[in-house]
Amino acid sequence: MNNATGQWPDSLFYDSYSYDFSGFDYFGRQNNEQDMNDLIGSINRLGARIFIRDVSFLQFKSYHIVIPELAQDKRCLSNFLVFNELIKITPLINKISTLSRDEMRVVQKTLEDNLYLLKNNHYNFNAIFLYNIEVEAMTHMSIDLFLCMLCYKMGDNEKSYLYLDNYLKDKDAVNYLYYFGCKDYLSLLLKNRCLLEIQSFLSLFYGKDLSDEIIEDMSNPNDVFKSYNFGSFFSCKTADISNFGYYKMAPILKTIEAIKINNPINQMNLSSLFHNAY
Question: Domain map of the chain by residue range?
């Protein structure tokens, strides 16, 4: 609620009130014009700016209003400038399986340098970076899991373990049993256990079938991304484009765009709405 993340403060569940509610004070408003006058006056007294854009091109009155100084989202410019660097590595991420070691280091360093901003601003790693059509395969992908796999591919088992441990912090073992098994595999590797010991341990805790799958997937670090098929694009000859979300939305977007073109809005006319508001 305080920073536009959608996360409610824990004070909502306190036993005692944070203040005494004495009811709403409507100040005896008579009409919308008077309300508008008072609201804009309050904004001016606070020293804030107001930006208004008319977006009524669908033929019903609609306005986009932004008051930067009063906005709930307090992210500063640096939170968005992060994309300047990240956008450069997007092509590399999407062909991660074929990168040279130097290129992988560039990806790792860039993501790690911006990890705090990426995670604390709730950026969708999949939506930003991954040009991938295999939606199901990417369901569980996150920046922590990606870095875990990248570090494992580069031979840094300690970092790989730490990123996987962080990825699993808020996950339950029932639905993420495979990943917990991979975490134990990495833990045993770090303890210099041989493959036979690892296999015996995993079989005991995860059963033979799952332990065999984990060992097979982890046996060759160079193949760690093979199941994700990064950078796969649809084939115009074979793909069923009706499965893509944009295909279903395209007719609506095209219709709205056509209406918008046919109903141009002169933003200078906005002043007539507020001629008595100052």
Answer: 78-223
